[in-house]
Write a structure and sequence with these properties.
alpha+beta, Arc Repressor Mutant, subunit A, 5 helices
């Protein structure tokens, strides 16, 4: 089976932004609105919206409309395992 490294590299680029990491971590356990993400991440609305759009368009997030609100959630929650692994590696690398 041929591995498509280009797709994997594109995915890593998405995760290489600290603001996107903060948003993804905030979405780890539960769906959230833009307003909730602004409060949690302490990022401006324009920044949160920009990064949500990027991740949604790349297929990382999905949306759920509840009344007049749009909630964002991880399309593939398993991606958080990669974050956990990176966190563990960076802890060990500091030693």
């Amino acid at each position: 089976m041929k591995v498509n490294y280009d797709i994997q590299c594109e995915m890593c680029k998405i995760f290489s932004n600290s603001n996107r990491m903060r948003i993804l971590i905030a979405l780890r356990k539960k769906t959230k609105t833009v307003s909730e993400l602004i409060k949690i991440t302490d990022l401006p609305q324009s920044v949160v919206s920009q990064h949500l759009s990027i991740m949604y368009n790349k297929g990382i997030l999905k949306t759920e409309k509840i009344g007049s609100f749009i909630k964002y959630k991880l399309k593939y929650p398993k991606v958080m395992k990669a974050f956990d692994m990176m966190k563990e590696v960076t802890k060990k690398a500091k030693k």
